[in-house]
Write a structure and sequence with these properties.
Layout (H helix, E strand, L loop, with lengths): L2 E3 L13 E4 L4 E4 H4 L4 E6 L5 H18 L3 E7 L11 H10 L6 E3 L4 H6 L3 E2 L1 E6 L4 E5 L15 H11 L12 E4 L5
Parallel strand pairs: 4-5, 5-6
Antiparallel strand pairs: 1-10, 2-3, 2-6, 4-8, 7-10, 8-9
């Protein structure tokens, strides 16, 4: 497991568009289709990463809670599936069913979308406002596998709550830490 931090990205960046296969429904999905009225969370995740496994339940809780409040969601998997077959679209579909993902779990087989977002690790969280401008790019919370902290989504929840309460999202954001995206050679 290679410990990698999310890249520093300038807030205000416009969300790169995408059209990717949702492994749950086998339909192509665009950014506009997942966009939420209040904001949109794009998550770079995968099946095998211990950091994603550690926060999976909390991700599902956040999606189920904040969708009702006007947020849209998508998970994107960009790893090289030849080297990491446990992240293949078939395995993504199984993983989504097992963890009851209620958001599109999209396959970025070309890795072009991960590059467009400058994603570096799994998990990597991007929260956009209602105009698809980046307002949060940071960690879910301070929990990590083995550090004894239970995942509660505190950092991401604070950013989403700021949106709901018409407050500015704190620009002091701690990077996400996880496994590096498994790039193709």
């Amino acid at each position: 497991m290679s410990l990698t931090s999310s890249n520093k990205i300038k807030l205000g960046m416009e969300a790169p568009n995408f059209k990717l296969m949702d492994t749950i429904t086998d339909h192509l999905v665009t950014l506009n289709e997942v966009k939420g009225e209040r904001g949109t969370l794009i998550m770079f995740i995968c099946n095998h990463c211990p950091f994603v496994k550690h926060v999976n339940d909390e991700i599902v809780h956040i999606v189920n809670e904040y969708r009702q409040l006007g947020f849209g969601f998508a998970g994107i998997m960009s790893n090289d599936v030849k080297k990491y077959p446990q992240d293949s679209p078939e395995k993504m579909k199984e993983h989504a069913a097992k963890h009851q993902y209620s958001f599109p779990y999209l396959f970025d087989g070309t890795q072009e979308i991960a590059k467009a977002y400058d994603a570096a690790c799994t998990p990597d969280f991007y929260l956009f406002d209602d105009e698809l401008k980046l307002i949060y790019h940071g960690q879910l919370d301070s929990s990590r596998p083995g550090n004894g902290l239970h995942s509660n989504g505190r950092d991401l929840r604070e950013a989403m709550d700021a949106v709901l309460n018409n407050r500015k999202v704190d620009e002091d954001q701690k990077p996400s830490i996880g496994c590096n995206i498994k790039w193709k050679e």
